[in-house]
Amino acid sequence: MADPIRVLVTGAAGQIAYSLLYSIAKGDVFGKDQPIILVLLDIPPMLPVLDGVVMELQDCALPLLREVIPTDKVELGFKDLDAAILVGSMPRKEGMERKDLLKANVAIFKTQGAALEKYAKKSVRVLVVGNPANTNCLIASKSAPSIPKENFSCLTRLDHNRARSQVAMRCGVPADAVKNVIIWGNHSSTQYPDVHHAMVNVHGKEVEAYDAVKDDSWLKGDFISTVQLRGAAVIKARKLSSAMSAAKAICDHMRDWWFGTLDGEFMSMGVYAGGNSYGIPEDLIYSFPVHIKNKSWNIHDGLPINDFSRAKMDATAAELAEERDTALSFLTQ
C-alpha cells in the first residue's frame, strides 16, 4: 500500500465539501489503493459543524481514510500538502459590488497562497473553486512564488460538464458519448462554451457536434446562454448554489490531473495562460482545452478559431484582465 497523501479541503463545513469529502475519502479521486489524510479547514465559527462532518467521515468506515484533521489554523491546514482544494471564499452578498467581493477574496487567497508557499510541498497541486475562481487562483499563485504556476488551476469542469450534458441530451445520447467540448475564459457569465471541435458518438460513429445537433441557431444561442447562466438557474430553483454537481466536477478535475486524460480527448481547466497559442494575454488564469499526462497539463494547441469564437474568447479575456487589474491593486494595498 502506498504512503498516505495529504489532501486539504477549505470551506470544509460548507455544502460543496459535504458532497465532496465522501468521494475523495473512498478513493474516487486519487485511486482505490491510495490512502488519504484529509485536512479540513474552515473559519472558527464553523468548527462545531466541522466536528459533525468528522464524525460522519469516521462513521463511513472507509479503509483508505487514515486520518481526518479539522482545523482553523493555516499552519496545520497547509502543512506538507500533496493536493489543496480551495472551496472556501467570501460569497457575494445582496447589494455587494463586484469590486468589494474581489477585495475580500484577495485577502483570503493572498493568505492561503502565502500559507501554501510556507508550509506545503512544492509539488502540491492546487485547485481553486471559490469564486471569482480564476482571479482567486491568480492571487494565490502570485502569493506562492516558489510553487510552479503550472501547479495552480481553477475549476471550469462544472461548466464543461454542463456543456457536455446539454449536447448529449439534445442528441439523445449518454454524456460520455460527447467529447472535446471547450470552456474558454472566465468562470462567469462571459465564459464561452464552444462545441466547434466537439464530437458526438451517434450509433457507434463519431460525428461533429454541429452535424449531430443539426440546429446551429440553438448551438450559437440558447445552448451558450444555458451553460453560462446555469449556476444562477440552480440557485433560483434550489435557493442554494450548485453543490452535488460542483463536487462531481471537482472530482473529475482532480482525477484527470492525477491520472491523465484519455488519448484524443481534452478537458477544460482554468490554467496559467503563459505561452498559449490563442492570443490570450499571458498573465491570466484562463480556461483552455488541456490534455494531461504525468500530472502535467498542456494546452491543446492548433485548433482553428472562427470569428464568432474569437469575439467571445476575447470578451471573456477582457473581463479577466479587468478583474486581475482590480485584484492586483488590492494586493499591493
TrEMBL record:
Residue numbers annotated as active site: H187 (proton acceptor)
Binding positions for substrate per the UniProt entry: R92, R98, N131, R162
Domain Lactate/malate dehydrogenase C-terminal: 156-330
EC number per UniProt: 1.1.1.37
Catalytic activity reported: (S)-2-hydroxyglutarate + NAD(+) = 2-oxoglutarate + NADH + H(+); (S)-malate + NAD(+) = oxaloacetate + NADH + H(+)
Domain Lactate/malate dehydrogenase N-terminal: 6-152
Keyword tags: NAD, Oxidoreductase, Tricarboxylic acid cycle
Keyword Cell membrane: no
NAD in keyword set: yes
SUPFAM superfamilies assigned: LDH C-terminal domain-like, NAD(P)-binding Rossmann-fold domains
Annotated residues for binding of NAD(+): D42, N105, V129, G130, N131
GO molecular function terms attached to this record: L-malate dehydrogenase (NAD+) activity
Enzyme class: oxidoreductase
InterPro entries reported for this sequence: L-lactate/malate_DH, Lactate/malate_DH_C, Lactate/malate_DH_N, Lactate_DH/Glyco_Ohase_4_C, Malate_DH_AS, Malate_DH_NAD-dep_euk, Malate_DH_type2, NAD(P)-bd_dom_sf
Endpoints of the signal sequence: none
An example Gene Ontology biological process: malate metabolic process
Family: Belongs to the LDH/MDH superfamily. MDH type 2 family.
Role played: Catalyzes the reduction of aromatic alpha-keto acids in the presence of NADH. Plays essential roles in the malate-aspartate shuttle and the tricarboxylic acid cycle, important in mitochondrial NADH supply for oxidative phosphorylation. Catalyzes the reduction of 2-oxoglutarate to 2-hydroxyglutarate, leading to elevated reactive oxygen species (ROS).
PANTHER family: MALATE DEHYDROGENASE (PTHR23382)
Cross-referenced HAMAP family: Malate_dehydrog_2
Identification of the protein by name: Malate dehydrogenase
Lineage: Eukaryota, Metazoa, Chordata, Craniata, Vertebrata
Gene: LOC120032408
